[in-house]
Specification:
Length: about 90
């Protein structure tokens, strides 16, 4: 999906690349997704959001900072390593 976003921002120079999260309260899920934000209007373009809305009708995308992305990655790595440890003892 990032390739689509790169192409979009190369064709729409007012948009800037941004990492964000797609969240759904109904599904109880959060995923990382690349998007583009218009510098003047804050309009967004997130190709993955349109696909996900078919399954998660309440899905929303929110841009995140580098610090927030690092925290998200740390939490994922912690959960992943915990799951790997649990599986190795079973």
């Amino acid at each position: 999906m990032i390739n689509q976003v790169f192409k979009f921002i190369s064709d729409n120079r007012n948009y800037k690349l941004s990492l964000g999260v797609i969240t759904s309260k109904l599904a109880g899920k959060t995923i990382l997704a690349w998007g583009a934000i218009d510098a003047d209007s804050d309009d967004i373009w997130v190709p993955e959001l349109d696909d996900i809305k078919h399954s998660w009708s309440d899905a929303q995308w929110t841009s995140i900072t580098q610090h927030q992305a690092a925290l998200f990655d740390s939490a994922y790595q912690r959960d992943f390593s915990h799951e790997q440890t649990r599986l190795s003892f079973n």
